[in-house]
């Protein structure tokens, strides 16, 4: 056997190993949803469903799906049997909210929140948080059927409905788990990411043209008595989208206890960062958590410092 053929054989073997590495419950979810996810720390299997079909602008900035338009579903094994728990955040247009909700409620999936994240965005988007448990394949099928009442893209096609004229583009892996290593085109962000890392005190990663920084809280929250890992939405999320000349549009959410809410509001506003929403994502969380969304488009270094000032009022894990 030639050296080239031998190496090719090793490559095929490696690909085969990766393809079969998923656990059976994860395979059932991928089959039920019609889209594979990624295994994450904490035993979480997370599927990203970015709204690449939408063209949303805010204050003249066209938002990348990975900045603020990323639906996701995160699954974790529940108890000692074959059941899993799911938590998720679904990005929906106003006309999609009730059709999707109808299918979820009829099939036993709980709605835990519906709200805005941003102000003045056009078209307006709403965010529906969901929670449920059940057999992996059936639960995934339920979620897929519910999202079939929206225009949420699954791979190269939408799950259901006809996308508005002029509002489509090819779907991509997009929102969801941030890649461990950025691709070459993503590396060329017009941002001083080292300065952002230094200001915030955390190292971020490039995800779909956006610089994403995740800051976990010092305690791991629980919901209905179960631990909610970072990959299920329990960490502070800070996203930077370059807008030219060293500026960036920022958004995300702070995860706060009650006594942290107003000090963080004051710190953000003092730095020219707009607070756009304050609400809950879960119904039985411990400690009780509030999620604060924000927005600004300004010098990236200035905004990073303002975000750090706000983080100084939060009990975060040591970096």
Describe the structure.
Helix content is 28%, strand content 32%. Helix 2 (24-33) runs parallel beside helix 5 (136-147), helix 4 (97-106) packs antiparallel against helix 5 and helix 8 (258-270) packs antiparallel against helix 9 (300-311). It has helices at residues 3-19, 24-33, 65-68, 97-106, 136-147, 184-187, 193-200, 258-270, 300-311, and strands at residues 38-40, 44-50, 57-58, 61-62, 70-77, 84-93, 110-115, 125-134, 153-154, 157-158, 205-207, 210-215, 222-223, 226-227, 236-244, 247-256, 274-279, 285-286, 290-299. A hairpin with a 2-residue loop joins strand 15 (236-244) and strand 16 (247-256). By secondary structure, it is α+β, with helices and mostly antiparallel strands. The strands form five sheets. It has a six-stranded antiparallel beta sheet.
How many helices? The count is 9
Radius of gyration: 20 Å
Helix and strand run? HHEEEEHEEHEEHEEHHEEEEEEHEEEH
Largest sheet: 6 strands, antiparallel
Q: Overall mean pLDDT score?
A: 86
Structural class: alpha+beta
Strand order of the largest sheet: 1-2-5-6-8-7
How much helical structure, as a percent, in the residues? 25-40%
Quaternary structure annotation: single chain
Shape annotation: globular
Low-confidence stretches: 1-21, 156-186
| Strand elements, count | 19
Which band does the percent of strand residues land in?
A: 25-35%
| First and last CA, distance | 50 Å
């Amino acid at each position: 056997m030639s050296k080239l053929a031998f190496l090719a054989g090793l490559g095929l073997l490696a690909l085969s190993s990766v393809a079969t590495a998923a656990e059976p419950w994860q395979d059932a979810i991928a089959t039920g949803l019609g889209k594979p996810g990624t295994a994450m720390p904490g035993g979480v299997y997370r599927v990203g469903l970015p709204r690449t079909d939408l063209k949303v602008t805010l204050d003249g900035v066209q938002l990348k799906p990975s900045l603020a338009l990323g639906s996701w579903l995160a699954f974790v094994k529940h108890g000692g049997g074959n059941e899993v728990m799911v938590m998720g955040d679904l990005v929906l247009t106003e006309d999609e909210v009730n059709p999707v909700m109808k299918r979820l409620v009829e099939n036993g999936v709980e709605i835990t929140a519906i709200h805005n994240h941003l102000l003045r965005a056009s078209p307006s988007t709403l965010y529906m948080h969901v929670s449920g448990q059940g057999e992996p394949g059936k639960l995934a099928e339920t979620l897929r059927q519910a999202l079939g009442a929206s225009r949420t893209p699954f791979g190269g096609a939408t799950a259901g409905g006809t996308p508005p004229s002029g509002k489509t583009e090819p779907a991509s892996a997009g929102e969801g788990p941030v890649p461990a290593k950025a691709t070459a085109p993503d590396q060329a962000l017009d941002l001083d990411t080292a300065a952002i890392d230094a200001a915030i005190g955390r190292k971020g990663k490039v995800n779909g043209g956006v610089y994403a920084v995740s800051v976990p809280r010092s305690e791991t929250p629980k919901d209905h008595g179960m631990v909610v890992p970072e990959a299920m939405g329990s960490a502070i999320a800070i996203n930077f989208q370059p807008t030219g000349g060293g500026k960036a549009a920022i958004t995300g959410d702070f995860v706060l206890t009650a006594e942290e809410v107003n000090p963080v509001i004051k710190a953000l506003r003092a730095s020219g960062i707009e607070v756009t929403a304050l609400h809950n994502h879960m119904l039985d969380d411990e400690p009780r958590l509030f999620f604060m969304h924000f927005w600004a488009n300004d010098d990236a270094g200035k905004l990073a410092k303002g975000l750090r000032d706000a983080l100084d009022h939060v009990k975060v894990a040591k970096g």
